[in-house]
Amino acid sequence: MIRRITAIVVNDVRIRFRRPSTAILFLLLSACAYMWVPAPSTGRTLLEINGQRAIYNSAAVGMGTASLATIFIGLIGFYVISNALRRDVSTRCGFVLASTGMRGGEYLFGKFAGNLAFLFTFIGGFMATSMLMQLVRGEAPLQPLVFAKQYLLLVVPGIVVVAAIAILFESIPWLSGRFGDVVYFFVWMASIGVVAAMTDKSAQSLHWIGIFDISGTGYLFESLRLTLHTNSVSIGSSTFDASKGVFVFAGLPSSFNLVVPRIGTCLLAAPILGVASLFFHRFDPARVRVTEKAKRNWIGRINALAKPFARMMFALAPSGGRASFARSIALDSMLTVSAMPIAFIAMIVFNVLSLVMPLKSVTGLLPIVFGALAITIADVACRESRAGTTALVRAAPQLRERFVIWKLLSSLVIGFAFFAGAIVRFALVRPAALGPLVIAIMFVCAAATMLGVVSANPKSFVVVFLLFWYVAMNDKGANPALDYAGLNGVTTPLVMTAYAALAIAFAAGAAAFHAFSLRRS
Amino acid sequence: MLSIESVSKRFRSGNYGVRNVSLNVSGVVGLLGPNGAGKTTLMQMIATITKPTSGRILFDGVDVVAKPDALRRRLGYLPQDFGVYDNLTAFEFLSYFAALKGVGGKQRVRELLEAVNLHTVANRAVGGFSGGMKQRLGIAQALIGNPDLVIVDEPTAGLDPEERVRFRNLLAEVGSGKLVILSTHVVSDVEAVANEIAIMKGGSLVAMGTPEELLRSAEGSVWAGVMASTELDVMRARLTISSAVRKADGVHLRVVSGEQPFAGAIAAEPTLEDAYLCTMTGRAA
To answer: Does CATH number 3.80.30.20 belong to domain B2-209?
Structure first.
């Protein structure tokens, strides 16, 4: 049994760590940490209380980067690991596994352990990178054990529970698709909300509800309240008053009252896996087939309802005549909408709202539109490789060599269709906001194209963009570098130039990768 | 000995995948039938992946529906459209399945890679393999536990003729002394290796026997003749044509028919392909 479980874990870790998207994600997370822990000489700091900043010792940098890691684990980690079972279904290797003497419980535990191994290794690497950052920016000697203790208390329970939830969601038919992805997002948000609400009301330490503190937010703020005696703490790139001096953060406390709920959170994995085993199909084709049907949830139904509208749009496509590159771009954009008709409805709704809502509300709406755009275009650049139609596309005129520019322009058509109302509105009322918005659309489309081409998987872009989107949303204009669309009004010409340059670099990177692939094939 | 007794599989939609199939399997058995005949569902039930709605499957006298582990320890299975984990090497891929099947040692993995002629690419990522190489890797994983029963489902689908022949020879070689069930809808795949052939249609077993028995059942129902190519379209609509070869004197036809199909047609010795067509069209004796 141990040998089988070990084989599953090693196999999963190998597969995941050999994907280019894992390296990209790691680099992005490390880049986020670099911004999260700014050099104090820039006037910004990692940990600040009433204008006073914490000195950069192992406890402060460890806690700060660990809190970023909890966001990653909660928000992104789930999406990264939630294909362990699906991979075995799609490759049909699951059928072979089912024909061996392996028990369903062994398989699920192996997959759970595989999720754990991946997340622990990933976060371990991130922690090592953060330690290096302390060596560069630190103001006190590196204490590896103190550093690791922050991660142990803050991140580990999240890793354990998210690894188990991913298995649960993959085992339950109606949660194993995109609907489950959406549900998980709300589960995670709710877990933060519940614990934060309890912490606000509690004068003492956390109660049993702390067990559900998956993100560690409740534990973090309760710990800071107890050690620093304040409810007003800012973590992650915030301004400080240099005249107020510094304080020393001694690290997260490990008192019995605080640690027991963290252990309890880890133990939550057991009942979650127990429920998963009740639903696990063990690759029975009859049940897997039901799973596929069950994916027609409310999103599927809305998609089905919207199909006639999407078909109408498709009917507008030019027919007959000679093939042209412009026609290929138009057809690919329409295919995107046709494949996801709900996007067509979203486009109409967003454009109408952008035209009729007060300008301030439009600015508030646009981040949501960026989210919808990201989900819609995530598979544009990789759908051929996923559907096995690459050879068909490469046989079409001009598309073999110009594949990247084709996909980029196709995504841009969708991007501008989503933002047409806002663009018109800004052009009429606030022309200065137009440039940043257009650059942001290009940036998002170029990033989707590059990650799609390189990883051949839409999830890479969705995951990376969600992380960026979440950090940017919650920054609320504190950091001009994160105001990618100028919606917080703090972006600068330099920042916009940087995003435009990034868009060009992404497109060039994708083109170089594609050219390399063509040479190899 | 594998014995299938009145096995049926009814899906939740109410449709039958397999209906009341009974057969005894020994040696190499070719399971023939068109797409949707129920071959895959039957094989999945034998492989203990899905349970029959009714009926029993006995392997050496043990009911494997009730006690699947009795068979799983002795089973090698290659499913239809078998995929691979692209990022793994052939050696890693095979080692993974070896570990899951409780087979120890790297030596066995190396032996199998050599047997399927993949030892020279053992350290290459399998994502870059051709369809034939992937199928050979698939048969290697099916054989890794030295199974007594090997089930291979449509193993030659999508392979080019050369790979097809190579795969067929490989199966004949490794299948000696084992119980092998090979499903396909290509008659020539089973012709060379199977000592018994079962034909399925619409979820039911419509014929079962040795190749000789099937050939005998088609005797008197196969006709050969030559006709003008201009008449071919009319004949295609009217007759079950087994083969049509254009030559200088016209089109040489082989036709499955209960009576002389056209003037000049003479009774011909049936091939297995003809026998299969006879069974499918209900003209077998």
So the answer is: no
